[in-house]
Give the backbone structure.
Amino acid sequence: MKVGVLKETLPGERRVALVPDVVGKIRAAGADVLVETGAGITASFPDVMYTDAGATVVSAEELYAHADVLLKVQKPTEVEVGRLRSGQTLVGLLSPLLDPQLMKTLAARGVTAISLDAIPRTLSRAQSMDVLSSQANIGGYKAVLVAAEAFGRYFPLLTTAAGTAKPANVLVLGIGVAGLQAIGTARRLGAVVKAYDVRPETKEQAESLGAQFVTLKSTIDATGAGGYARALTPEEQAAQQSELNVVIGSMDVVITTAQVPGRKPPLLVTSAAVRGMKPGSVILDMAASALGGNCELSVPGETVVTDGGVTILAPENLPATVPISASQFYSRNVTALLLHLLKDGALDIELTEEITAGVVITYGGHVVQPATARLLEPAPVAGGAA
């Protein structure tokens, strides 16, 4: 079997799906490794590092023609989909719940689609494959650095001959993997950190990193399935929001990380909350996307400065701005999954096995993951049958 590593084509994507360090592990499992020319350049892994590790560097045409399994970070473009052939397997962050039509197209082409953002995160034996966690960790770290650069003051308490600089007050909204890393990074930079999440069990995690957990009078337990928070009801959201606005108004920097897979992110920072913040304050919305963001005024990929002097940052794809580490972690996750699926030098797709059932989206010409398949079902006709 031949495993191929594609060069990323999305603008700004600097990661590579497989780094040279893990080539030996895949070859030891009975598979050859092909790498598209220049695939690792933007992550500081030149072609020679792959050849030294035992991989074969080839053109894109050769890769598509000969690879049985294709590894990517981002989902394929229309052009890339057109180059795939029946019987190939595509592995990457395919976002099946956000783009079910792409999954339908891949199934029609006879491609087995394996999406790394569908790893069952509650299974302990799948932790080494958890790409979302490894990349969120990097995103949370970089989010604090980006916010600190935009903030016009020091983060730590500093005493100098010219006087004392007070530490920045930072609020982290959402205490998942990204939020915990943001807390830790902000604390290491010397900020005074508060944190909030609708899941009460995250209080201990936040406090273990030195943050003060924000407890609202309108206490809400929104623990959901799979370790994520569930969506709040309109009544719960209104009660939460009025109290949060007061907390947000006292902060210098707010970093939001709350997301619900496949759905619009929860609104945590309203325009009213932004108006209550001091000039020079910074909001960094990690959840901003085409579906929306945690901040009402976020614009994905852009920086907005309000009339009140509040800077709102909505950077896209933060992990790609730390390409070496992000690629190394991603690569280890991918390798762990491949080694789980490889049997006697070939992929063994057993849909009754929990991890395999979670990540395999299309197989045998069909969309087999239930959640994605449901999104492709025709909408019921209003009024029923005539």
